[in-house]
Amino acid sequence: MSIYHVSLTMPDPEELLQRKQFLEKTRTKLERRLQDYPAGRLSVSRRKRDGATGFYLFTEDGKRIYLNRGQQRTKARFAQKEYDRRALCLVRQELEKLSDVLAYYEMPKLEDAYEQCIPEKQQLIVPTILSDEEFRQRWLTQGYDRKQPFENDHPFPTEKGDMVCSKTEVQEANYMFYHSYDYLYEKRLNLIDDGRPTWRYPDFTLLDPVTREEVIFEHFGMVDDEGYQRSMFDKIRLYEENGYVIGQNFLFTFETAEHPFTMDQFIRVLEARFPRK
Questions:
Q1: CA–CA separation, 266 vs 268, rounded Å?
Q2: Whole-angstrom distance, CA of residue 277 vs CA of residue 275
Q3: pTM for this predicted structure
Q4: What is the pLDDT of residue 12?
Q5: If exposure means fewest CB atoms within 10 Å of the residue's CB, which of 55, 177, 229, 276 is most exposed?
Q6: For residue 5, which of 206, 271, 235, 211 has the smallest C-alpha distance?
Q7: Distance from C-alpha of 41 to C-alpha of 57, rounded to nearest angstrom
Q8: Domains in the chain and their CATH numbers?
Q9: Residue 181, number of CB atoms within 10 A of its CB
Q10: Continuous H helices in 6-124
Q11: Measured distance CA(67)–CA(114) in Å, rounded
C-alpha cells in the first residue's frame, strides 16, 4: 500500500457531495430554528451536600431564575437551543473544510503530469507515479511467466481469450471479464519455502484498483481426494508463510462431490473483497 497514491487517502467525491448537501440543508434548518428561541440560557447546578440538581434560566439582563419540576418543557427548550447552537457551529466548520477538499479534486494532480505529455515523449519518461488508468493498462499488458500446460490439460476457452483447466474456471473467468475485474490467469508467484526460492501458479491474480495490490484467487476443486487435500493444505500454508492473508490478498473457493461449486459461492467471496458500488 503506497501513501503516495491519492485514492488511498481521499474519500469518494460523490459521498462528499452528498454529505455537503445534507449539511447545507441541516444548516438552513438550524438557522431557522435558532431564530425562534427566546433569549436566555439554561444553567445546571449540583449541590455538594446531596448531589441534587437544580436548573436555572439566565436572562439577557443577568437575572437567575429557578425552574421547578413543572417547567420541564422550558428546560427542554433551552437545552435544545444550546444543542442547536453547538450543532450549527460544527456544521459551518465542516462545510468550510468540505469546500477545501472538494476544491482539491478539481485541481491537477501529480499523476496528471505524465498524461499531459504527448505519447512520443511519454516513451522517454519514467514518471514519479502513474495515473490509475495508466497503471492498470500496464499491469494488464505486462509480460509474465505463466504455467506451461501439459498436452490438452487447458482445453476450455474463456471470453478474455485464455485457455483454462476446467469449466468452473471458465465460469469464474467470464464473470470477472463481464463485470470488469482486472485479472491475469496463472501468473507465476515467486515464494520462499523454508528459506529456499519456489513458486506457484494461482488460478487468477486480480488487481485491486484502489491499493494497486495483487490478490490471488484459487479454486480447490477436488477436496474429496486425500492426495489433493495434502497439496491444497501445503499450498495454503505456503501462501500464509509468505504474507498472504485469507480474505485480504488470498481468496479461494472449493467443492466436493457432496457440495459442488456454485457461482453464488464465488460471487460472495469476490464481492466481500471487492464490493461493487
A1: 6
A2: 6
A3: 0.64
A4: 80
A5: 276
A6: 211
A7: 6
A8: 6-106 (no CATH), 111-142 (no CATH), 144-273 (3.40.1350)
A9: 19
A10: 6-9, 13-35, 72-106, 112-115, 119-122
A11: 69
Residues with Cβ within 8 Å of residue 99, at least 6 apart in sequence: 20
Query: Within 13 Å, how many C-alpha atoms sit on residue 262's CB side?
Result: 5
DSSP 51: -
Query: Residue 133, SS3?
Result: helix
pLDDT digits (tens, 9 = 90+) for 109-168: 888 888 888 989 988 988 888 888 889 999 999 999 988 877 667 889 999 999 998 889
Beta-strand pair 156-157/53-58: unpaired
Q: All 3 cell numbers of residue 73?
A: 418543557
d(CA 200, CA 191): 8
DSSP secondary structure code for residue 3 in this structure: T
3-state secondary structure of 156: strand
Helix (H) or strand (E) segment spanning residue 177: helix 167-178
Task: Pull the grid cell for residue 48.
Answer: 455538594
Q: Is 75 exposed, middle or buried (0-12, 13-18, 19+ CB in 10 A)?
A: middle
Handedness of CA 67, 68, 71, 76 (dihedral sign): positive
Distance CA 160, CA 163 (A): 9
pLDDT tens digit sequence for 48-104: 777 788 899 999 888 999 999 899 999 999 999 999 999 999 999 999 999 998 998
CB 175 within 8 A of CB 168: no
